[in-house]
Design a protein that fits this description.
The chain has about 350 residues and is of the alpha+beta class. The protein has helices at about 25-35, 65-75, 95-105, 140-145, 170-175, 180, 195-210, 255-270, 285-295, 320-330, and strands spanning about 5, 10-20, 40, 45-50, 60-65, 90-95, 110-115, 125-130, 135-140, 155, 160-165, 215-220, 230-235, 245, 275-280, 300-305, 310-320.
Length: about 350
């Protein structure tokens, strides 16, 4: 049943959960004592959540740290003293968020977030309920329309980073199967590359992950030739594998991938609000290592792994959000991330 009162057309409860002030204490209660299937979000270990529809009675259940709720509402690490501290959050999916937001304003409610589009495609308005819940009304592409949650278009000085679509598969199929691109991929990757490899990857791997909100994919294009794909760059919530990329070798050694990595890394930390980024690579992949080194990452682990080109040392590089933002603040103006 749907209720439509003066533009407030609520479809269902989209999510609910406590707002925590001690991750350890809340984990002990909800996971150890109650046995709820909560897992930390990769890159944001204090945010504990269930898989979609994994807990009966709610589509999404999560423990949201108060500091993160404060950042979402006020872009600050602490909840303001002049407002009651919320003990829980709840979100309601609505049919039309513009009408629903206007309806709340017409009734005199004070909004903390006003009709904002989040990086994962959800649009949200937030306010405190009379009981002190941090309430939200939302429109989520997957829930409301069955469409993929795609990453936003990003730009650098020379590049357009355009969200991946099924229409990009033919260009990828032609461009991708080059030894200079594939040799440092994990040995389990299909090689030689199948004739339908790009289509299968885009439609069966990438777009479903994007729709689930666990990965983000961009085609890399020159601003001077926006119709032409020259590479791909991705972000993922996969453990110890948060960023990956490839570029047509004809465009190597021009600093293009450094530009692209700088932009999506900032997106990872300051739009998706992740706390750490880790990127694996083959030790012999000198170009990728240079990009990691230039961006302030550090080597944290080395182990043997099988790649398409053979058995090599595999390195894991890491940088935290605090480290990234500190470096960004010191960067020359030409290297700072701005705009979309």
């Amino acid at each position: 049943m749907e209720y439509d009162l003066d533009g407030m057309d609520v479809l269902f409860v989209a999510g609910f959960g406590p707002i925590t002030q001690s991750t350890a204490a809340s984990r002990d209660f909800y996971v150890a004592a109650l046995g709820l299937p909560l897992k930390p979000m990769p890159g944001n270990e204090a945010y504990l959540l269930t898989e979609h529809d994994a807990l009966g009675g709610v589509k999404h259940f999560a423990l949201w740290p108060l500091a993160q709720a404060a950042r979402s509402c006020f872009d600050a690490d602490s909840w303001p003293d002049y407002l009651p501290v919320p003990q829980a959050w709840i979100e309601f999916e609505v049919r039309d968020i513009d009408s629903a937001t206007d309806a709340l304003k017409a009734r005199g409610y004070r909004l903390l977030v006003d009709n904002r589009i989040e990086p994962w495609g959800q649009t949200v308005t937030r306010l405190l309920s009379p009981e002190g819940l941090l309430a939200g009304i939302t429109v989520t592409p997957v829930a409301a329309r069955g469409q993929s949650m795609m990453a936003a278009e990003l730009m650098t000085e020379r590049l357009l980073l355009i969200p991946l679509t099924a229409d990009d598969a033919p260009q990828i199929q032609v461009l991708f199967p080059q030894w200079g691109i594939v040799r440092y991929l994990a040995a389990g990757f299909p090689w030689p590359f199948p004739e339908d490899g790009a289509s299968r990857y885009v439609n069966s791997v990438a777009l479903p992950a994007a729709a689930n909100g666990t990965a983000w994919f961009w085609t890399i294009r020159l601003k001077t030739a926006p119709e032409r794909v020259i590479g791909l760059i991705t972000l993922s919530d996969e453990v110890d594998n948060n960023r990956g990329f490839w570029l047509d070798p004809r465009w190597h050694r021009q600093g293009l991938m450094t530009e692209a990595c700088r932009r999506v890394t900032d997106f990872w930390f300051n739009t998706l609000n992740r706390e750490v980024l880790r990127a694996p690579k083959a030790c012999d992949n000198s170009g990728s290592k240079k990009i990691s080194h230039r961006s302030g990452m550090r080597l944290i682990r080395v182990e043997k792994k099988q790649f398409i080109c053979g058995l090599l040392d595999a390195e894991l590089w890491e940088i935290t959000k605090a480290e990234w933002n500190a470096l960004a603040a010191q960067a020359p103006a030409s290297h700072r991330v701005t705009g979309c």
